[in-house]
Amino acid sequence: MSSDLEDRRILSIAYRSIELVNNESTLSPRTCNTRHQQIFGFYPNESWGVWSAGKKSCLSFPDVINSKNRIDLILDAHPFTEAFKSCSISIKTSSGHRGKAKISGRGSIKIGLKKTLLRRDSRLVVGDFSQIDTPYNFSHNDKLPTISIILLNQEKHHLTCLAAIAAASSAPRVSFEILCVDNGSSSECLQEIRKSDVPMRLIELGENKGFGLANNLAANEARGEYLLFLNNDAFLDQGAVDEMFIAFQRTPDCRIVGSVLRYPDGTMQEAGATLQPDGRPVRHGRNDQKFNLRKLPRFHPVDYVSGASLMIRKSDFLEMGGFDQKYAPAYYEDTDLCMRALLYGQKVYLASRACCYHIENATSSTIEHGAWATSTAEAHRNIFLKDWGGYLATRNPKDLPWHLKNRISAIKK
User: Fold this and answer.
1) Which residues are bridge partners to 370 per DSSP?
2) Upper half-sphere CA count for residue 117 (Cβ side, 13 Å)
């Protein structure tokens, strides 16, 4: 897949791989000392977003830039090529520096940013991780967290670590923990996750258990009252966790809640979905530049929210039996879970004020996987229709198969 991204927000994916080279000295978020922490945009009073749409900054220059008119920005291309086969990036800064780069392969890329004059207080805008140094509301071992955020990983530590950073920096008011469940990655990949700046409890499965089973195993290990299933190519925006959590307090019939999903360039990916009689989802707002979230209620009932960013009470998830293994290793298990909320007389809600930037399919983006994914999704849609096809055609619970009707009867008893 190729994409021409004339948008500075995508650069934030590679934030942890940025190095600033000036006056023959190199600075990076991992190596700079306390004196230079400010260079990398740690401003606790500024709002934060994985891809900044405003004029906030990721990098600033309080005292390390002289009269030179060129800055070199070095990026690790790995996070970009995880999402796109190639992309063109145009970088514009609030200080007037500009640069362009074509990313088409892995490795380090140097981008020269030029400007005639440079003020001492100038800032380079490439995204805003300004709350990265604020105290995370992590739960300590002696206190159970309210929310367990569950990330799956398989040989994608670049994305997993960044998703964890975004989740922690979304500044949840409630206590939380982050679980990383690894589906049989290499020792090198696991070591990188252990070195993450954000604490994660690593659960090593030793082999690829697929989406549903791996998440089910993680749910059993989770210490939180609520579970937030999060893809490792999904980056939570500020306040997203709190908004999803509030849905359970404001809507008594809420069993599952999901966030709005956007592509990295800000385009709407989906705001929940309605299922058609054939089991295919109509994703609300998908690629619709005019879609207006403000017209939706704060918590909007939908048929389905994506497992890329889905919250549910742990007790409810376990009561429901988790993700159904007949959809292993992937596809339609989150759709089926959402539909099963109906059996309990409850609903699925979209938290319309909660935003998550989702690359989509970055965890496995080869041509071979694309063909496998298409055939597997189609096969699992047919399995899904055996349970839910009659109901989707009429929206009448009488048209559910007998084993689901029996489950309803058992629940009512």
Assistant:
1) none
2) 2
Check if the beta carbon of residue 39 is closer than 8 Å to that of residue 30. no
Strands 70-76 and 201-204: unpaired
In the 3-class helix/strand/coil scheme, how is 132-193 assigned residue by residue?
Answer: CCCCCCECCCCCCCCEEEEEEECCCHHHHHHHHHHHHHCCCCCCEEEEEEECCCCHHHHHHH
- Amino acid identity, position 365: S
Q: Is residue 136 part of a domain?
A: no
Residue 93 has pLDDT above 90, yes or no: no
- Joined together, the tokens standing for residue 176 give 């939380």
Are 51 and 357 a contacting pair, CB within 8 Å?
A: yes
Digit-coded pLDDT (tens) for 5-15: 333 334 444 44
pLDDT tops 70 at residue 236:
yes
φ and ψ at 108, to 5 degrees?
-85, 145
In a domain, 181, yes or no: yes
Structural domain containing residue 195: 147-368
113 and 168 together in one domain: no
390 alpha carbon, distance to own chain's centre: 33
Q: Do 156 and 73 share a structural domain?
A: no
